[in-house]
Every structure is written in C-alpha cells, then in structure tokens.
C-alpha cells in the first residue's frame, strides 16, 4: 500500500467511525507507529485534514462542525476507475444530440459536474486537465441502434442486412437479439443467428438495414451468453477454444506485464526479463492484429497455425515496403 492509498484508508476509517484507536489504525494500514504519525502530520499540515486526537477514548477522529457533523478529507480526488467512469459519463452526455431526453439530461449533467467537484477541484479545472481520447470509434446510426435496442428489450427477432467486411458482402439475416456489448469503443449485438443456427456477434455500424419481425426471439441462457463473450480472446468467439503462447521481449515486457489480454491469461516472467503470456482464443483475427502491433518484440510460440498466420501477415506487410 503506497502513501496515497494509506491517506484514502485513513480517511475511510475516520469516516466510518467516531473514533479510531491507534492500534486499529496500525493493524489496518500494516505500518509502524512512526510512519503512521508522519502520515497524520502530513494530512493535517499539507492536506488540512481536521484530524483530532481523542484523549478520553485513545484514538483519532475527524473534528465535527455544527453544519455537517463530520468532515471529509480535502485535497484527494477519485481513483482511476472512478475518474474514468465519471468522465466517460460526462463525455457521453455531452456528445448526445438534442432529443427527447434533453429535459432530463441537463439536470443530470449539472449533478455530474457537482460530483466531479467533490474532490475540491472545479469541474472546469478537471475538464481542462484530464482528457479521455476516443480512438478507433466507429459511427453508429442512431436509427439502427434504436431498432436493435428496441427489439432486444421487447424480446423480438430482427431482420437485418449485414455487411461482412472480410468478404465485402452483404447478407440478409434473421436474428434473436440477446446482448448489447460496448467493446473497444464500439457497439456489438450478440444474437442467435437463425441462418447459422448459432450465437454470433454483429458490429452495429455494419448493419445496413434493420426491422423488427413479429416473431418472438429465441431465448439463450445468460450463463451461455456469458461463456460466449468470455470464452476466448476478443469479440470473436466459437466452440473450439485453444491457447496461444506469446513471448515478449524484455523491452516490451515492461508494458505488457501490466496489461490484461484476457481474464484467464497465464503469465510467466523469465530470468532474462522477457515475458510469456498464454491466452485462450477461438478466432485468430483480432488476436493476430493485437500481436502484430508489437512488431519484432513478440514471437508466437504456439499454436503453429497462429504463428503461420502472423508470419504471412508480416511477409505481406514487408512486401509493401
């Protein structure tokens, strides 16, 4: 636990209890008494935290005020996941065009700005200093998204004309919508495809036309859908789950060691600084693309067909130069 994390922990303990004995503080923080006292002094002097020593009960507390009764630790903002969630919500609301929800969205945006300012930083300051950059986002037609979402929630089938980029062909499909998934800044529909008689994922921006049918959607158990979207690497899925073994150079391992390619991945650091990662996959397409972005710093060890696919792609790329 680093120092900033300890400040959060101390603040949480003081918020949750009227008085926190010093023995409990040391046990929860797993630090020495001397380190703890330095933390308390820093929080008082530099962060202006109203922390008091309660002599009668032998512990620390937040000073109370007639207005609030308690005071929070000033100066700290949100952790990484909280900041991302708040700024993403703000970004999504700001991008929305005026429509039926306008009357509801403006008060919501005002509330969101107020939450962002709870860290004692103005919302304007946060907006100027913290940015979310949208990369590789594909435009989705509002009309198509609304049709898909309506059929999904009404549990109705959809008739769609779907453009397959790989084959540069459009096909007519009847699908039973199951899930909407936002993945890597893009929207996908997970649905039972009545043409293929299997669960498939469809990029919503590749739907050319869509209309609901009067037929009831085929129901797929949630457990089966969870398995489908988490079975292998990326948005593509299938029944044949295999494992890819990738070796990253010592240089690239400094970054890759902190990445999660898949929740079930297995990681093996080596004495020379290189890193081996094993990930489950069912389709080589997306995995190959993510492997290729690491260039000469990654080698596919297994399986042979994935290794060959990456080798062929590198050979074709080299031919362009």
Automatic annotation (TrEMBL):
It comes from Malikia spinosa. InterPro entries: CBASS_pafABC_assoc_protein, WCX_dom, WH-like_DNA-bd_sf, WYL_dom. Residues 242-315 form the WCX domain. This is Transcriptional regulator. PANTHER family: PROTEIN PAFB, PTHR34580. Residues 144-209 form the WYL domain.
